[in-house]
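Ticket #4471: structure export looks truncated?
Reporter: QA, pipeline team
Priority: medium

Steps to reproduce: submit the single chain below to the structure queue and open the exported record.
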Amino acid sequence: MRERRWNILVDLLQGRPHSIGAEIGVFEGDTSTYLMRSMPGLRLLYCIDPFEHYPAQTEILNLNKDKFYQVNYEKVINKFLSRMEPYLERYILLRMYSKTAARVVQDGSLDFVFIDGNHSYEFAKEDIELWLPKIKSGGLLTGHDYNVRGYKKSFGVTQAVEERFGTDFNFKRFMWWHEVK
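Actual output as written to the record:
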């Protein structure tokens, strides 16, 4: 069986504090619902997504522009809300860009952040810088789509992670993580 990002994330968080976290880029809620279901100690998850198109995504993801703009984000958010309904008391949806949401969340208040938003270099770099101060000492900054082959600049995530952390991070199956000291 292929190991998915949410399996790796849950494995990383087991045995370390994980009561308050944030997910940047939730789309339909695959990772969010898995975290809620698998981690009863997760008391609060900030779910951050503007649920709208980023113009840079079509180029970075090498997508057909017509197909990309056919995504109905109202259907996407409704699917997310439906999936997360059993967990209403344990999550806060911030329907906004990551940069705006970072102003809402207090520095040093999170046990982990999972970044899976806009994968362009500029946005990946910005998300790392914005969310790193939000994490408590001993917490994890994690993300998806590291070292993905076949896409332009590996989405930009690889470059942003390596520039910020050098060799002070780990990765497995497109997931990367850095322990905050």
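Status: closed, not a bug. The export was complete when the record was re-opened. Leaving a note from the reviewer for reference: Helices lie at 5-13, 30-38, 55-60, 65-68, 73-84, 98-104, 121-131, 157-165.
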